[in-house]
Amino acid sequence: MGDLPSHDAILAELERLVPKVEQAIAGAVSTHDLDQVHATYLGRQDGAITKLRKSIGQVADIPTKKLLGAAINEKWNALEEAFRTRTELLHADEERSRIAGEWIDLTIPEEPLSRGTLHPITEVLNAIRQVFGSLGYRFVEGPEVEYDRYNFTFVNMPPDHPSRDTQDTYFIDDTRLLRTQTSSVQVRAMRVYGAPMSAIVIGRCFRRDNDATHAPIFYQAEGICIDTDISLADLKGTLLYFMQSFFGTDRKIRLRPHHFPFTEPSFEIDISCMRCNGSGCSLCRKSGWIEVLGSGMIHPTVLENGGIDPSRYRGFAFGVGLERMAMLKYNIQHIRHLYENDIRFLTPRRDA
Ligand SMILES: [Zn+2]
Known about the structure:
alpha+beta, BirA Bifunctional Protein, domain 2, 2 domains, seven-stranded mixed β-sheet, two-stranded antiparallel ribbon, 11 helices, binds zinc ion
């Protein structure tokens, strides 16, 4: 009988185990921990107290067996109750932290979105559209790969004309090239729309040219205005409005005689220096004036090439480089800054 568990031994073991279980329950920091503790002591097969309860079956004396059974059950039920209580508590904690992790405060202001700014060339382009749109000019376009005749011959630059030498041209083949000037669209527009007409073309041009103020790909805007009574005064008034709209109403302009094959007479247009206001500085090379664009009265031959009768109609034309406009307006030193896409250059509001 010595091998059989005694009443006292079972009770002693129960008294030893119960505080351990209570401690383990209190020490569990998660429901997962708690499940482990439950399995260790009250597990269906291997729980320490489960085994103790099974050992009662080997006690011979029935009343003793009943007493032990009652004692263990009482502790068992108390422990199960402690497990339930602790489980509820830990479960609630876990829910709270799960929800806290998922919680989004919709009232916190979002990081401001940084909106891009327009490229300086785009700003100039928009300004030109604005000015000439308000004057009722028609916006026209032409091909960048152009026939020699539209780019040169029809605008009074026949094959042997010396002006061709000043425009280093990218030729595609004997008859086609990358247009060197938006003047290529003049005759196209005249042939399509006839007279009277006022039109502006803004687009890319190409020349073998590369220095601080010239890029091989550049933007030009070309305006033409044709009617029966167009005079030099109209040209001057239009360009004064253009320049004042773009550079400010303080600007004055002057016409300086020049030569272009497609206009007669021809002028270079200077504006009074925006930095020194005409008194002379490094920007205007002490002259007080800055050259901005070329213009003139459309040559009768060009009108004829466009199918417009030069004995009835007259017109003016002007061409301006958008890079030059941007560099002057935003005080940009080298044309390459416009094309390097350096975000530090492009981001600040230049005209703020
Ligand atoms: Zn100046």
